[in-house]
Amino acid sequence: MRPMNDFSKDPLASQLVAAYEAQSVGGEAVFFEAKAYLKIIEYYERDYQYDKALEAAGQAISHHTFSAECYTRKAELLIGLGKSEEALEVLEQASLFAPFEPEIGLLQAEALIALKRLDEARAILEDMKAIANSELLSDILLVEAMAYEEEAQYELVFITLKAAIEADPSNQEALERFGACIEMSRKYEESVAFHEALLEEDAYLAPAWFNLAQAQAYLGNYEEAIQAYEFAFLSDENMEEAFRECAGLCFELKQYNKALKCYEELLESFDPDSELYISIGQCYFHLGKYQSALAFYTRAMQFDPLNDELSFYMGECYAMEEDWLTAIHFFRKAIRIEDGREDYYAALGHACYCCDEWAEAEACFRKAALINPEDSQYWVKWAVFLLDTGRAAEALEVLEEAELEAVGVELMYCRTACLFASGKRQDALYWLGEALLEDFDGHRLLFEIQPALGQDQDVMSLISTYSLED
Fold first, then answer.
1. Which of 186, 189, 204, 387 could form a disulfide linkage to 395, CB 3.0–4.6 angstroms apart?
2. Residue 115 neighbours by CB under 8 Å, 6+ apart
3. What is the distance of C-alpha 69 from the center of its chain?
């Protein structure tokens, strides 16, 4: 998601674009200064309207023949679109007017790398190094790293990008590429040490904070990661990725209020979309605020009415409030959109069971188990439904079938409950012993299925025996 591209965020750019587009409609040639053209090009580029950006770049060159920056902007666009041969032609023209402009050499090297003409690219970069200050050297090394990446020499990519940052720590693109390089090389511990040293020199390098946060998160240092993400967006309030990553990590750690705070910042500063509204809704859902969750899910639905997960989440909210008929409506809608999700069928089965629609409930539980036969939980749900509706013998048949497809101690505890319900106490106690031996803590499932067994003296005695052994 990009920053808002409208009058409220950048009225000057929007006014320039409006004037630029009006000339096409009116047939009048309007002259813009070079800086104005560059702003128009950036506007279209940010809006992913690359054809219009290229057209504006062409107009800029025709009106400002001697402006090297107009040429280089067009070349950048062409390289980004995979048209590197055309970019080299544009840069050749630019070099006639500005032969000593470093940006031209850097883009020529970048275009040559894209064309796999690496020796030519390196020759240009080596010539440039002889006259480079630290800032230019950083840019040269950044492009050099692209050549190594083209050759899949990732160790050299890492070393070169590190050198680029050391030459100029404020080189944002180098920092961003370094972050991606660390992810590929898995050098997270080295990344932590490097970025911490970097931030001691300049505590306002937002990309460095972001890279540090990513490394800490990978290493399992979650609180340190959250703190680093927070410093990243404090250093740069437009760093949307830091807000999102921080919110996502807080959500995974079940720090829902903290995640909400990040999502609310995103809502205030950037364009809202379906994903953002869903994320906020998920936070409210886990906080037990189901109406608030529904409010944000409803907003998300306006962006993405055919999102099956969104319909499922709405169904879950209504199920938590025991509004089973509405829950059924949304679960069915989710299945109409995507009929291959076992969790959708299991949720619909439970809602139908609560509405005494037993035939549909059974069909749903069966479907869930058959979609994902290797997951024991869906066989258990189907068997428990049969047990609860007085069909213990059929439940045992389902569990026999389940054992051909899935493994899991849940099946053993469920079998135990069904055997007790069928009056087969000796068999039930045998299977309970086997289940306790495999996973003692799993015995809580037995009491969820049949709470009355918590008062059964033989059951409790057997559990106590295994508890002492454990």
1. 387
2. 84, 85
3. 35
Establish if 121 belongs to a structural domain. Answer: no
C-alpha 266/C-alpha 277 separation (Å) is: 10
> What kind and span of H or E run contains 5?
none
Domain that holds residue 401: 385-470
**Which residues, given as ranges, of the chain have pLDDT below 50?**
1-8
Q: Which residues have C-beta within 8 Å of that of residue 286, sequence separation ≥ 6?
A: 254, 256
Q: What digits encode the pLDDT tens for the residues 322-369?
A: 999 999 999 999 999 999 999 999 999 999 999 999 999 999 999 999
What the block records as the tokens of 77 is 């666009």
- 233-273 residue pLDDT tens: 999 999 999 999 999 999 999 999 999 999 999 999 898 99
Within a domain: residue 243? no
Span 201-220, pLDDT tens digits? 999 999 999 999 999 999 99
**Structural domain contains residue 38:** no
CA distance 356 to 328: 12
- Token code pair at residue 88: 């080299």
Q: What is the DSSP letter of 372?
A: S
CA 198 to each of CA 119, 161, 174, 207: distance values in angstroms, whole numbers, following the listed order: 32, 14, 13, 11
Distances from the Cα of 135 to the Cαs of 75, 148, 203, in angstroms? Answer: 21, 20, 19
Could you write out the DSSP letters of every residue in 378-400?
Answer: HHHHHHHHHHHTT-HHHHHHHHH
Three-state SS at 237: coil
How many independent structural domains does the chain possess?
1
> 447 lies in a domain?
yes
CA distances to 39, 194, 206, 286 from 182, in Å: 33, 11, 17, 33
φ/ψ of 407, rounded to 5, equals: -130, 155
For residue 5, the model assigns a pLDDT of 41
Please say whether the dihedral angle defined by the alpha carbons of residues 51, 57, 60 and 65, taken in this order, is positive or negative: negative
* CA–CA separation, 7 and 340 (whole Å): 44
Q: Which two tokens stand for residue 217?
A: 């998160």
**Residue whose structure tokens are 């969820």:** 448
What span, in angstroms and rounded, lies between the C-alpha atoms of 165 and 158? 11
